[in-house]
């Protein structure tokens, strides 16, 4: 399978449903309709798939590292059961008040992904549902992509610049696979 590009996905609100109370367990981790299939289709078309997610719930003691690991194991199992894979899930465990380089909107996680993948971000898409995702993509010189799931609709209303936008991850995958 020929390499076609690098796709980085935010997690909550893009792959799975989001909650203002945090997704705290594998049971609460519920994929958005069509999102797992979108990941599988992109992978089989030759895209390397990574996830970059802020997980302040760890620092706020809303859930444990074991809980987060269980959520990510569930996500990986759903994708792998369909013959695909997520290369790696990167997460920021820090509180929003902490100064770190990995918490979006800073580009640290995306830069680590580029290093891990051995690729540049100039041709990579970062698909997110929040302004922090869009800002992180721009800061890392990746292509920002907005989906209207999760916080996407309110984010779209507050965007000051035009960003390529899709209803959901499945519609984004349709677009990428038609390129």
How is this fold's topology laid out?
Layout: E1 5-9, H1 35-44, E2 47-54, H2 65-80, E3 88-92, H3 108-117, E4 125-128, H4 131-140, E5 143-147, H5 152-158, E6 164-166, H6 169-178
Parallel strand pairs: 1-2, 1-4, 2-3, 4-5, 5-6
Helix pairs in contact: 1-2, 1-6
Q: Radius of gyration, Cα only, in angstroms?
A: 15 Å
For the secondary structure, the number of strands is: 6
Q: What is the overall number of helices?
A: 6
- State the shape: globular
Poorly predicted sequence stretches spanning 5 or more consecutive residues: none
The spatial strand order of the largest sheet comes to: 3-2-1-4-5-6
N-to-C series of helices and strands = EHEHEHEHEHEH
Percent of residues in beta strands? Answer: 15-25%
- Measured as a percent range, the helix fraction is 25-40%
Largest sheet: number of strands, sense, barrel closure: 6 strands, parallel
CA-CA gap between termini: 17 Å
């Amino acid at each position: 399978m020929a390499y076609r590009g690098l796709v980085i996905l935010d997690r909550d609100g893009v792959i799975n449903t989001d909650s203002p109370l945090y997704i705290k367990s594998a049971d609460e981790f519920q994929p958005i309709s069509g999102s797992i299939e979108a990941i599988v289709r992109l992978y089989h078309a030759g895209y390397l798939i990574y996830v970059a997610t802020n997980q302040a719930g760890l620092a706020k003691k809303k859930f444990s590292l074991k809980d987060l690991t269980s959520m990510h194991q569930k996500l990986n199992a759903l994708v792998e059961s369909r013959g695909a894979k997520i290369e790696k899930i990167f997460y920021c465990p820090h509180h929003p008040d902490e100064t770190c380089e990995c918490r979006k909107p800073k580009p640290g996680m995306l830069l680590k992904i580029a290093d891990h993948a051995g690729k540049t971000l100039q041709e990579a898409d970062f698909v997110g549902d929040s302004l922090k995702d869009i800002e992180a993509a721009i800061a890392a010189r990746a292509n920002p992509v907005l989906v209207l799931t999760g916080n996407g609709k309110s984010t779209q209303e507050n965007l000051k610049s035009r960003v390529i936008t899709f209803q959901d991850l499945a519609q984004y995958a349709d677009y990428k696979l038609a390129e």
